[in-house]
Design brief:
Chain A: One of its GO terms (biological process) is proteolysis. The structure holds 2 protein chains of 2 kinds. By secondary structure, chain A is of the alpha+beta class. Chain A contains 8 helices and 10 strands. Classes of the chains: A alpha+beta, B alpha+beta.
Chain lengths: 277, 374
């Protein structure tokens, strides 16, 4: 080992210097990134841009002169904070959206924003205001539902126009959340509650109504059954029913005589008793 | 696998074992390859052709006190010394070559599991995707291999673990407390790796946007009903997939399952009261039906009884009538106190209090004032 160093000192040093030099004059751009080569402050070339020719890979540069700025090539996200938006019908809504963008012009991006974070902080207030503007033209109800799509495509187009100035392209804007602020939230709860109370009351009333109808129908059909049966001979029914009635009225089952009957000797029952015939 | 930092892992493995059986391992690593079972020799270790690993005796022989002491630059502590090759040269270069060779081997042979795929970047440039199985690539600095589980289903639960209720606005401006699971896996590994910065976050955001948009198109009752839920699940899945495809995220949404859809806790009592009301209403209906059956059955029974009697009556009206009359009177009068009053101008004293007393003594007696004199 020592001998190796003594024998080949010069060549080892040369090899090391050559290696370091090679490493300094070479840069690798991975698939996920694009790069801008800046020579003395001036963008010289780009590598692996979405529209560009040169793909990811290994490239040469001039050591000390060329600076390589790496820029994300993949889709980036921009999330905005909850933002209170006033709808056209003066209702408040907390809105939270995200945008997805990518850097399409890294030179412009580097010149105007410096970094992707720079683009983000430039775009965020724009997204806020564009969204607020666009949603402010709509009613609360349409914010929630159908028109969302068209509103968002407007927002996307607007934001994209602004983003182009920073070398970025906005692919998509989506509303993530639409929430009610605190006071409307409470009133929404109250409304939901009263809604349910009304529903419960209606259900109870319906139950009562149905029950009453069912009973009445039963009574009616019972009456019909009786009428059909007894109507065949009204006078016999009168007699028959009277007999039953006496039975239940006077001959109670508990056996104790609670009724006293005073009979006139003229009574029909006592006809034979008197020996009339 | 050993894609990311092969120097670290390859070097560690063999220098760690280099301490206990020194050179044997060093050269053996170059020849046989300890880690991946690959018979192929990487180009780096081609120089160790004729070298068989020295047997243990040789090593100890060389290690003896009479052996020449060198200051070894190797990975040992002070006093550590590489044994010498038979030719008198150091083992050190062999060891270095062996470690490098092992590293190269480890980064160029890849065993990719059945669920996995791998993207290969040649000097940073995406060149191909490896399927499952035993695959080869150029060693590390030239090609990097990134293995990823492609088929495995990855669930995301929304809202996450921080158990807070996230209320979602429905189309009729009510709120629903909804939690759901999104299952996804990788559709296209290259897209997944190179198109979107944070795929998981992207799935999350897309899911939330899609869910809120879908729920906003339904009203409250629909979100609670099974059918409405199924429609929402399907809708969210399609929306998410469209969104993710527009990002070329390389992600396949396998399914969205709504875990729970509840009224917000603030109004849950009112919702329960609706259920109670429903049950009450059902109970009332049931009772009424019971009553109805009873009444109708009774009517039928009585009508039938009357019919039967009437049939007989018609056969012999007079006799039947008399019979019924007497039978009934019998029953009635046998159980009651009877007083027969002779009417002709006689004012009779009616001992009502006495009757009552007697009846209380529960000794029914019959007072019959016989029609006198006849």
């Amino acid at each position: 080992m020592n001998r190796l160093w003594e024998d080949h000192r010069l060549s080892i040093i040369v090899a090391a210097v050559a290696l370091v030099g090679l490493l300094m004059s070479v840069y690798v751009v991975p698939e996920e990134e694009q790069a801008v080569v800046i020579r003395t402050g001036e963008p010289k070339r780009t590598v692996n841009t979405p529209g560009g020719q040169s793909d990811a890979g290994i490239y040469l540069r001039m050591p000390f002169v060329d600076r390589v700025v790496r820029v994300e090539k993949r889709l980036l996200d921009l999330e905005m904070n909850d933002e209170e938006v006033l709808s056209a019908d003066q209702q408040r809504l907390l809105v939270n959206a995200y945008a997805r963008f990518r850097i399409t012009d890294p030179v412009r991006m580097v010149e105007r924003a410096g970094s992707t974070d720079g683009v983000r902080s430039a775009l965020e207030p724009i997204l806020n205001s564009v969204l607020r503007q666009e949603l402010g033209r709509r009613t609360f109800q349409s914010m929630l539902t159908a028109e969302r799509g068209s509103a968002l495509s407007n927002v996307t187009a607007n934001l994209d126009r602004q983003a182009r100035q920073y070398g970025a392209e906005v692919v998509d804007v989506k509303i993530m959340r639409t929430d009610l602020p605190d006071a409307p939230l409470q009133s929404a709860f109250r409304r939901m509650e009263s809604d349910r109370e009304r529903e419960a009351r209606a259900i109870r009333a319906e139950g009562g109504r149905d029950a009453r109808i069912i009973r009445a129908e039963a009574d009616a059909s019972a009456a019909k059954i009786y009428a059909d049966a007894y109507g065949k001979d009204a006078s016999f029914y009168d007699f028959y029913r009277a007999m039953q009635s006496y039975d239940t009225t006077f001959a109670s089952e508990n056996g104790t005589a609670e009724s006293s009957i005073i009979l006139s000797p003229d009574n029909e029952y006592l006809q034979q008793f008197r020996g009339r015939r | 696998m050993a894609g990311n930092n092969p120097w670290g892992s390859g070097g560690d493995g063999s220098s760690g074992s280099g301490n206990d059986d020194d050179g044997a391992k060093g050269s053996g690593g170059g020849d046989k390859g300890k880690g991946p079972r690959n018979p192929w020799l990487p180009p780096g270790s081609g120089g160790g052709d004729g070298r068989r690993g020295p047997n243990i005796e040789d090593i100890f022989k060389n290690r003896g006190p009479e052996g020449p002491r060198r200051k070894g630059g190797g990975p040992g502590g002070p006093g550590f010394q590489f044994p010498q090759r038979p030719g008198g040269k150091s083992w050190f270069p062999v060891l270095v070559v062996g470690i490098i060779g092992l590293g190269l081997l480890a980064t160029s042979v890849h065993l990719i599991g059945p669920q996995q795929k791998a993207v290969v970047k040649t000097l940073g440039n995406y060149t191909r995707t490896m399927d499952s199985g035993l695959q080869f690539s150029a060693p590390f600095p030239i090609e990097t291999v990134d293995v990823e589980d492609v088929e495995g289903v990855r669930p995301i639960r929304i809202p996450g673990n921080n158990n807070q209720a996230k209320l979602i606005l429905t189309g009729d401006q009510n709120l629903v407390d909804l939690s759901y699971i999104v299952r996804w896996n990788i559709k296209d590994l290259a897209d997944y790796k190179f198109r979107v910065v944070d795929p998981e976050e992207t799935v999350n955001d897309a899911a939330e946007a899609a869910m809120r948009a879908s729920v906003a198109e339904k009203n409250l009752d629909e979100t609670f009903s099974g059918q409405g839920r199924a429609a929402i699940e399907l809708d969210v899945r399609e929306r998410m997939q469209a969104t993710l495809d527009s990002y070329r995220a390389g992600i396949r949404v396998l399914g969205v399952e709504i875990e729970k859809a509840d009224p917000p806790s603030q109004v849950v009592d009112a919702f329960r009261d609706v259920q109670v009301a429903e049950q009450n209403a059902d109970a009332a209906r049931n009772q009424a039906r019971g009553y109805a059956q009873q009444v109708v059955s009774q009517a039928e029974g009585e009508a039938e009884a009357f019919d039967k009697v009437y049939e007989q009556y018609r056969l012999a009206p007079e006799v039947t009538r008399q019979r019924l009359y007497y039978e009934t009177m019998e029953r009635v009068l046998s159980k009651t106190d009877k007083t027969i009053v002779e009417t002709d101008g006689v004012t009779t004293y009616l001992p009502l209090p006495e009757v009552r007393r007697r009846s209380q003594q529960a000794q029914p007696t019959t007072t019959v004032t016989a029609p006198g004199g006849q």
